[in-house]
Specification:
With 88 residues, this protein is mainly alpha-helical.
Length: 88
């Protein structure tokens, strides 16, 4: 059975958001790790702010991904219930 368009749109949106947040978190950690390495090669005051940024971005990304996943799950359940009601 083909998925309803609304579900396809939400699933695609969820996938894109998850990928985007993952990319932002990865870039944040990339900068933090680069600063950590640079600290031991030369003096740098950027380390703490970059680590804080990486942690905050990661936490926000995880929270947003959880919200998106739950919303998608709720939508799937609602659509399945709607389909089951139609079949009765």
């Amino acid at each position: 059975m083909a998925k309803p368009l609304k579900l396809q749109v939400v699933e695609t949106f969820a996938t894109l958001m998850t990928a985007a947040f993952g990319m932002v978190a990865a870039l944040a950690w990339n900068e933090a790790i680069k600063a950590l390495i640079a600290k031991y090669i030369s003096a740098g005051d950027e380390l703490v702010p970059l680590l804080i940024y990486a942690i905050v971005v990661t936490i926000v990304a995880v929270i947003c991904i959880i919200i998106v996943a739950r919303t998608l799950g709720n939508l799937k359940e609602a659509l399945e219930a709607e389909e089951a009601a139609k079949q009765k």
